[in-house]
Each structure stands twice: as structure tokens, then as C-alpha cells.
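From the methods appendix. Each design record in this collection lists the discretized structure first, followed by the designed amino acid sequence. Records were kept in a plain field format so they could be parsed without special tools. The example shown here is representative of the layout used throughout.

RECORD:
C-ALPHA CELLS (207 positions):
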């Protein structure tokens, strides 16, 4: 299966049994002063209008990102084959340990990993930040049972990841949201070029 034909397919409570696709993302604000807008997915039921993922790695990261925000989402190809890139242990863990806390991406700096990082979450109950092994794709296969790391700040959690799990086991990754925005911008640029080329064509040349 070509890696450039992957789609994020969502199942929404208000559309049971009807698959919808990730079309783009949008920043939504509830009007509360001082709070940053929340990034939300925008869906479409037309696969032709959905994002096409050119990297299986980025597609899996994006799927796990939206799952971490409570969405039911899988990866499929254009022919509807899937779910793809799943394993039974991961599905069981997602079922047994639902995520209620919103994730924040913390990027690293230096050491050849600029821009890569990890997702950490804040627990209002404990008033601490934390990261679970299942939040890091490279740890899902053999290290998923490692104990959750907690700290008083998001940066301290990331430091614990590097110190206790190591960068070789807890491999940092790109922010799926940033990858989604970059892919969206790429597709928009391609479409703009096509529109410009079409506009320059003489009427008799258009088919």
C-alpha cells in the first residue's frame, strides 16, 4: 500500500455508522479572555476533500494525537482497507485508559532534535504534569508498561523522559498538528498553482 494514500477516518457520536474525514483544522475560542484558542478538526464526508497523508509515520502520529483528545479515529486507504497500523495491545490500552486531559506538545532544542518533542498532559486532580509510555509511539511495542512520569511542570516531565527513558527508547517526534498544517499549506499551494495555470490557458485550450 502506498504511504501517500492514507486518510484519517473519524466516527462521530452524532453521525453513528457514517465515516467522516479530516478536512482541515481550525482554531476555536470560547470567548474567555486570556485563554488561547483550541485547535479543532473540521470534517467532511467527501473523501475527495480530505487530507491525504504522505507519510505513514506522520499519519500514525496524527491519529494518536486526535485519539488523545477523545476522538474515535482510524487510518484507512482510499479503498477503505483498514484500520491500518494497529496492534491489539494499543487498542486495549486505549479502551482501558481513556484520556480526559488535553495534551500539550513540548519541543526539544539542540542535539539534532530541534522541533521534535513529546506530548505531556496536566492533571487538575493532582495539579501536576505527566506523560505515559503509550503517548510515545516508539514505546508502544516493548515499553508500554513503564510507569507514568509526573512533575510540577511540562518541561520537568520532558527532562524526566530523557533521563529515565532515554532518547533511544522514547524517540521524540514531530508535532502532528504542525505536520497537518504543513501538509494543508502544501496542498493549498499546489491548488493555487493549478488555478493560476488554468487561468492562463486560453478558453479554447481548456477541457
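DESIGN:
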Amino acid at each position: 500500500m502506498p504511504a501517500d494514500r492514507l486518510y484519517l477516518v473519524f466516527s462521530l457520536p452524532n453521525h453513528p455508522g457514517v465515516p467522516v474525514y479530516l478536512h482541515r483544522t481550525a482554531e476555536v475560542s470560547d470567548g474567555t479572555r486570556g485563554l488561547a484558542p483550541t485547535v479543532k478538526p473540521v470534517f467532511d464526508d467527501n473523501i475527495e476533500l480530505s487530507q491525504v497523508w504522505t507519510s505513514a509515520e506522520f499519519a500514525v502520529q496524527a491519529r494518536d494525537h486526535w485519539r488523545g483528545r477523545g476522538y474515535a479515529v482510524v487510518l484507512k486507504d482510499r479503498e477503505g482497507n483498514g484500520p491500518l497500523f494497529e496492534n491489539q495491545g494499543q487498542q486495549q490500552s486505549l479502551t482501558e485508559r481513556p484520556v480526559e486531559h488535553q495534551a500539550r506538545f513540548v519541543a526539544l532544542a539542540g542535539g539534532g532534535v530541534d522541533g521534535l518533542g513529546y506530548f505531556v498532559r496536566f492533571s487538575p486532580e493532582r495539579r501536576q504534569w505527566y506523560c505515559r509510555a503509550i503517548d510515545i509511539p516508539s514505546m508502544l511495542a516493548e515499553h508500554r508498561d513503564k510507569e507514568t512520569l509526573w512533575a510540577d511542570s511540562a518541561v520537568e516531565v520532558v527532562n524526566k523522559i530523557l533521563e529515565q527513558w532515554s532518547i533511544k527508547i522514547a524517540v521524540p517526534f514531530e508535532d502532528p498538528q504542525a505536520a497537518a498544517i504543513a501538509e494543508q499549506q502544501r496542498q493549498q499551494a499546489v491548488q493555487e498553482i493549478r488555478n493560476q495555470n488554468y487561468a492562463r490557458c486560453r478558453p479554447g485550450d481548456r477541457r
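APPENDIX NOTE: The chain has a mean pLDDT of 79.
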